[in-house]
C-alpha cells in the first residue's frame, strides 16, 4: 500500500471516529464532517512532493496550493529547512479542515492552513494540535481573500453585501475561513449569516467553477483564484477582506507527536523563520525587483498559477512568524455563538509559542 493511500484511509477512519464520538455537534458541523470524510478519502490529498536533497529528515507537511503557502515553497526551494537538518514533504489538500483531521490522526506532522471550526472542535474534544506560528493574516492593503460578485450582477447594480441579501454565496465548507469571512463581514453591515444562502462546494476550484458557470451569485475565495476570476471576467471584487476585517486567518500547526519531538520541531521552526524573513523582505517590503520575481516564479511552480496572477496577491504575515495576540479566543467565541463550536477556546488551549521563541533565540 502506498504512503499516500495509507494517509487517505487513515484520515477517513479518523473522521468516522470523530463523527461517532461527537453526535452532539450542531447539524452544520455534522454535515461538514460527513463531507470531509468523502472529500479526504476520495480526493483531498492530491500528492506528496519531497523537494531537495535526501539527507534532510522529512517532515510530513499538509498545505494548500495557494499563494499564501509561498513562504513554505520558498523555504523548500532555497534549502532553508535543510540548513537545520529537516525538509518538508508536501502533502497537498483541497481544503483546510481535512488538514486538521490529518494532524489529529498523526498522518501529518505539521500543517499550514486556515483556522476553522473543524480544528477548534477537534481541540475542544481533547485532541492536542498546536498553533505555533503565523502563516497569514487578513490585513489592510494586502490581498489574500475577497468576496466577488458575478459580473452580470455587478453590472446590474450589486455592489455591496446588502445587495446580496437573499442570494447565494459560495464557500469551501461550513466552518471554513471563508464561512467566517462572510459571517463577520455581514455582521459589520448590520446583517446576519441567515440573510444570504451560504453554499458549501468543498474546494476553491469548485467555488470558482460555480461562479464562472453562474451557479452562484457571489463567491468567497482566495488568491490566486480571486485574480483568475477577475481576469476571466467571471467576477468582480466587492470586498477585500483584509481592508475590512483584519484577523489571524492562517497558521502553522504541529501535531502533538511532532511537538514532543522537540529537536526536529525547533529545527523546522528555524527554517520557517528564515523563509518568512526572506518572504517578508522580498515581497512585502520591496514589492518589486529580482527577489520579488524569484518568489513569484517559485510560487507559480508549486501552485500551477500563472506568474502574472501570482504577483497580484501576496498576503501579509509577520516577518518573524509572531501571531496576532488574543485573536484565537475572538474566533472561537464567534463560532460558539453560531453553534458550530462546542465551547470557546482560549489561546492557551491551542497556542504554543515556545518553538518560535526558541528558534528566534538562536537566530539574528
Topology of this protein?
Layout (H helix, E strand, L loop, with lengths): L2 H19 L5 H18 L2 E4 L6 E8 L5 H9 L7 E8 L3 H9 L4 E5 L2 H8 L4 E10 L6 E6 H5 L12 E4 L5 H12 L8 E4 L3 H9 L5 E5 L2 H8 L2 E6 H4 L2 E9 H5 L1 H24 L4 H14 L3 H4 L16 H11 L9 H4 L3 H8 L3
Parallel strand pairs: 2-3, 2-4, 7-8, 7-9
Antiparallel strand pairs: 1-3, 4-11, 5-11, 6-9, 6-10
Helix pairs in contact: 1-2, 1-4, 3-12, 3-13, 4-5, 12-17
Task: Supply Rg.
Answer: 19 Å
Helix percent band: 40-55%
Q: Which structural class is indicated by helix and strand composition?
A: alpha/beta
**CATH fold-level label of the largest domain:** D-Maltodextrin-Binding Protein, domain 2
CATH architectural grouping of the largest domain: 3-Layer(aba) Sandwich
* Number of beta-strand segments: 11
Number of helices: 17
N-end to C-end Cα span = 44 Å
pLDDT < 50 runs, ≥5 residues:
14-54
Spell the H/E element sequence: HHEEHEHEHEEHEHEHEHEHEHHHHHHH
